[in-house]
Amino acid sequence: GESVGLHLPTLSVQEGDNSIINCAYSNSASDYFIWYKQESGKGPQFIIDIRSNMDKRQGQRVTVLLNKTVKHLSLQIAATQPGDSAVYFCAENSGNTPLVFGKGTRLSVIA
Amino acid sequence: NAGVTQTPKFRILKIGQSMTLQCAQDMNHNYMYWYRQDPGMGLKLIYYSVGAGITDKGEVPNGYNVSRSTTEYFPLRLELAAPSQTSVYFCASSSSRSAPGNTIYFGEGSWLTVV
Fold it and tell me: How many angstroms separate the CA of residue A35 from the nearest CA in chain B?
């Protein structure tokens, strides 16, 4: 199976609420993790990344949390907006191998 | 700055036909990639290249070929189109292997339907 996967395929949140998108990975040697956002009809866009020697990284309205003990990654979006509606992918990197992408979670924001 | 440019955007092929998806990047990136994305699924790596003259198979290379004669271009060739190749294809590039500070940039995608 895939080494990177997601717990929930779809997520609906009310506008203004916080969103949490989860991701599980199985390769303990992965040293770098990335979250991408893909809007309908477009290519994936980089959101935020985190090295394996960190457990938290914050960006503008987004936070990525890494729990290496349980091989779990999450993306938190604060004050979710309609423009956040998209499919979100986590991806992992190990050594010189190209990125492995998860299946994706569709985030729908209810106005 | 154009970034990663893919052509065509949309194409319908008949079974057995051949075609080439074009990809160009103007960021002088060494690494380039081709991914396919089936409906409701994640991205699967077809082929990648770490520099001109070097290509490597990804997860799903069967039915495809690539070449990398220059840094800028990385075309993807479908020799005998099959319905299973109906998908959205994304070209991407990065300055080196994906790492902090070396983000992978994606093109807008090419929608291919084989009938």
Answer: 11
